[in-house]
């Protein structure tokens, strides 16, 4: 282990900037009165913009830092930008929403920045110890933020369930790391790969460790049967945090899963493929089926997120095929972008209408939205069509690339399950549209405009990018070519 150099810190400059900024805000917020917490929100957004600028500046650069525990490549750079933009959306959604619920406390934004830094480090992790530390850095602030509306019972329940199951999954992940260390004598990725390629690893211990890692990551991405926390946590948490967890936490979990399994376990793909196949199929079937019965919008989006995790896993099933591996990662990145825009758009519409001290809107609360607020109705419509995968939306192109990757990997039955469950999802997504456009009602936008702004921007992004899917996909493919 060598002493860190200036170059080490330069390679993780976005994370360093964000962490220092978060610590400064923590101190500055002590002198900001409760009536002027918008200063804290503005400072947090500024920190995210500066960090994103650093991440854009590092696009195309590669290297390793801190004795090869962290790597910089296109994969980590793209995901870091996605996390930072998700953070900006979360800050915008939070300001008016927290004010409405009399919960304007500056630590909200600081905790959010710490969590984003953990996600960025997880995407860059090149050592299993770094994976675990990053996971804890992103998770612990979210445990607190899930219960931010204390002493509301629903918020406290959400935080408790998330914390208990999160701690349990972290223990499983750490146990898996221990098994892999016992098998190979290494926790760093190059050392593990060298031990496996050299025939020095204990194969049985390695498989057990890989299985335990999959369970730990399965919790973070919220796939069946590791989804138990998702519906209650999303419903009880502040909606702004529910939106953030839906996108960013899922993306961080997939970032770690993709890098770990592509780099460490390509030879174990024949065994892992069957497990991934089962997780993908079960998540798509369970998430879409249970979502049909939901009348609470938060719970519906929670089960939708389980199904969408299954769709992303579909492309990763044939990851052991070197011809498919890069296509799988590119498809996953493209779909994560489409899912981020779509999900933030849907949550933003809900937050714009959600009154104070509410645990989420019921579907009938959207009645009349399309007539009374055409711009919000259009944003909701575009988001729902994108969730379904209606041509020509970003959701359609995302599923197209996922299905194509699965077909190229000879996973035809899994593609058929994906197609059929997408048809099932059309029922509950279009039911929301039906309430918004075909049912009489008088929905009321709550004070504040930022949620409406986010909804319109996301809808515009879905619409515009749907006309240029190929350049976006090619950019994702180019970024992961140097993935380590």
From TrEMBL:
Main location group: membrane
Keyword ATP-binding: no
TM regions (residue ranges): 12-32, 39-59, 74-95, 107-123, 129-150, 162-181, 201-229, 241-265, 271-293, 300-320, 332-353, 373-392, 412-430, 450-477
GO terms, biological process: ATP synthesis coupled electron transport
Entry EC no(s): 7.1.1.-
One Gene Ontology term, aspect cellular component: plasma membrane
Sorted UniProt keywords: Cell membrane, Membrane, NAD, Quinone, Translocase, Transmembrane, Transmembrane helix, Transport, Ubiquinone
Annotated NADH:quinone oxidoreductase/Mrp antiporter transmembrane domain residues: 125-424
Subcellular location: Cell membrane; Endomembrane system; Membrane
Catalytic activity: a quinone + NADH + 5 H(+)(in) = a quinol + NAD(+) + 4 H(+)(out)
Membrane-protein topology: Multi-pass membrane protein
InterPro entries: NADH-Q_OxRdtase_suN/2, ND/Mrp_TM
A GO MF label: NADH dehydrogenase (ubiquinone) activity
Family: Belongs to the complex I subunit 2 family.
Function description: NDH-1 shuttles electrons from NADH, via FMN and iron-sulfur (Fe-S) centers, to quinones in the respiratory chain. The immediate electron acceptor for the enzyme in this species is believed to be ubiquinone. Couples the redox reaction to proton translocation (for every two electrons transferred, four hydrogen ions are translocated across the cytoplasmic membrane), and thus conserves the redox energy in a proton gradient.
Classification via HAMAP family: NDH1_NuoN_1 (MF_00445)
Quaternary structure, from the entry: NDH-1 is composed of 14 different subunits. Subunits NuoA, H, J, K, L, M, N constitute the membrane sector of the complex.
This protein's name: NADH-quinone oxidoreductase subunit N
Originating organism: Leptolinea tardivitalis
């Amino acid at each position: 282990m060598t002493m860190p150099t200036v170059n080490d810190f330069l390679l993780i400059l976005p994370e360093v900037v964000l962490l220092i900024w978060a610590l400064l805000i923590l101190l500055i917020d002590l002198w900001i009165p409760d009536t002027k917490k918008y200063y804290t929100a503005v400072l947090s957004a500024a920190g995210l913009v500066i960090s994103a600028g650093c991440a854009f500046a590092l696009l195309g650069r590669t290297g390793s830092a801190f004795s090869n525990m962290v790597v910089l490549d296109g994969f980590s750079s793209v995901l870091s930008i996605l996390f930072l933009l998700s953070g900006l959306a979360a800050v915008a959604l939070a300001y008016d929403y927290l004010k409405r619920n009399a919960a304007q406390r500056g630590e909200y934004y600081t905790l959010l920045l710490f969590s984003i830094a953990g996600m960025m480090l997880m995407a860059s992790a090149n050592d299993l110890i770094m994976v675990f530390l990053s996971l804890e850095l992103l998770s612990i602030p979210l445990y607190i933020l899930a219960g931010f509306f204390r002493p509301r019972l629903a918020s406290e329940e959400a935080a408790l369930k998330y914390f208990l199951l999160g701690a349990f999954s972290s223990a499983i992940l750490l146990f898996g790391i221990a098994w892999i260390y016992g098998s190979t004598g290494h926790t760093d990725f190059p050392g593990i790969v060298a031990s496996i390629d050299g025939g020095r690893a204990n194969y049985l211990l390695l498989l057990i460790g890989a299985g335990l890692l999959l369970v730990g990551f399965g919790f973070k991405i919220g796939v069946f049967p590791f989804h138990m926390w998702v519906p209650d946590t999303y419903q009880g948490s502040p909606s702004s945090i529910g939106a953030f967890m839906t996108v960013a936490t899922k993306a961080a979990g997939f970032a770690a899963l993709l890098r770990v399994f592509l780099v460490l376990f390509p030879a174990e793909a024949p065994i892992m493929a069957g497990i991934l196949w089962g997780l993908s199929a079960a998540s798509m079937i369970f998430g879409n089926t249970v979502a049909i019965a939901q009348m609470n919008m938060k719970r519906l989006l929670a089960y939708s997120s389980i199904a969408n995790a299954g769709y992303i896993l579909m492309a990763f099933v044939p990851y052991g095929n070197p011809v498919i591996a890069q296509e799988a990662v590119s498809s996953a990145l493209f779909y994560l972008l489409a899912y981020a825009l779509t999900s933030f758009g849907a949550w933003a519409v809900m937050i714009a209408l959600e009154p104070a001290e509410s645990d989420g809107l019921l579907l009938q609360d959207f009645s009349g939205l399309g007539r009374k607020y055409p711009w919000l109705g259009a944003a909701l419509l575009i988001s729902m069509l994108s969730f379904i995968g209606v041509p020509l939306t970003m959701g359609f192109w995302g599923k197209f690339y996922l299905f194509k990757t699965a077909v190229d990997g000879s996973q035809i039955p899994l593609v058929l399950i994906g197609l059929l469950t997408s048809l099932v999802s059309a029922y509950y997504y279009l039911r929301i549209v039906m309430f918004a456009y075909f049912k009489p009602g008088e929905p009321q936008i709550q004070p504040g405009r930022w949620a409406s702004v986010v909804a319109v921007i996301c809808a515009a992004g879905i619409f515009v990018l749907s006309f240029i899917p190929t350049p976006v996909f090619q950019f994702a493919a180019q970024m992961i070519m140097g993935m380590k």
